[in-house]
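Hi R.,

Here's the chain you asked about this morning:
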Amino acid sequence: MSIKTVMFDFDGTLVNTNDLIVKCFQHTFRTYTGKEMDRAEIQRNFGEPLGVTMERCFGKDRKREAMDVYRSLHRGRFVKLIRIFPGMDELVKELKQKGYQTALVTSRLAETAMLGIETFGLKPWFDTIVTMDRITRHKPDPQAIQLALSDLGAKAAEAVMIGDTKYDMLCAKNAGCLSILVDWSVMEGEERERLAPDYIAKSPEQIREIIENI
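And the predicted structure, written out as tokens:
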């Protein structure tokens, strides 16, 4: 078996949005409760659709309002606070130049996903982009990956998903493709072991080596 299609998550995988996400959650919690939420607890929600988290934390009646509070701060600080993980932009370009099909598969809305990849000059290097706007069922449901594969005319057995959360790893498993967990994930060690990703990579260089040697 050889890999022909490489799919990337956005948040926490290609781009370090961790501090931005935590700041936006803390702002929302201060607005409604007058106190901040534990950072580790916020990080456990990483990868989950925002609406799901907000409904669980603030209830169905306040869900939409809480999402608006979160996004009001998010929009103003997005470009200022995000950073590409070192070497990940070069990895995407190198894989594309070597003939791999490339896809961005994210639970982020198209507006900020596109802004993010444009900020780091990555838009031309993706053959397809699947954002939350294009799907009705979110990770870990396989719909997002299946849509990316359909866009590319690709096979799950020849594809790999690179991500940082349990949602990415389970989405890959449910879609029938391989998974690579980035070692800079905020996921705790015990959870990593339970998920049993196919591979764990400590660097962009190791991601490339894994892909080329599968």
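Strands lie at 5-8, 15-16, 83-84, 101-105, 128-130, 159-163, 178-182, 199-201.

Let me know if you need anything else.
M.
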